[in-house]
Amino acid sequence: MGIEAHEGSSTGGGPGAPGRSADGERRRRQVMELRAAISLVGSAAADLGWGAGPDVRVLPDGRLWLDELEVAVSGAQVYQAARRLVAAQLRTVAEQAGVPVGEVAGPWLLSLHTNEAMLDLHLELPRDDAA
Fold it and tell me: Number of folded domains in the chain?
């Protein structure tokens, strides 16, 4: 999907050029291309009616209006609902496996933190110390 630079073409840098390594730039380009592909496929599918659902609009005061329920909710309410949904999923997986919730949540969190750290390394992103 990407456009490759060939010998003799100008890529804005060269041997000894300041900035990221060629490998780092290649990774960054791959991530950008992947995000563009996801956006294009998602938009095309939406144009064909896939994923159509109830409308959600942002009101001037920042709350979300849910057309299907005819109710306005705050970002905090959406966050709390998402937490309850994930909690229910954790509980169900733990019960199905017959293990404590920590044996499900711990590896999941470890995986998420590992993925974040790997992205930081590959993309040279600044760390968020709030986490």
Answer: 1
Whether the per-residue pLDDT at 17 is higher than 60: the answer is no
With 0.70 as the threshold, say if the pTM is over it: no
Q: Express each pLDDT in 63-94 by its tens digit.
A: 988 888 899 999 899 899 989 999 999 999 99
Within a domain: residue 65?
no
What whole-number distance in Å separates Cα of residue 7 and Cα of residue 109? Answer: 44
Q: Which of 36, 27, 25, 28 is nearest to 1 (CA)?
A: 36
Domain that holds residue 80: 74-126
Give the residue ranges of DSSP H helices in the chain. Answer: 22-47, 75-97, 101-123
Reduced to 3 states, what is the DSSP secondary structure of residue 79? helix
Residue with tokens 């954790």: 90
Instruction: Name the token pair of 43.
Output: 């938009």
What single letter denotes the amino acid at residue 122?
H
Here the tokens at position 51 are 């994923």
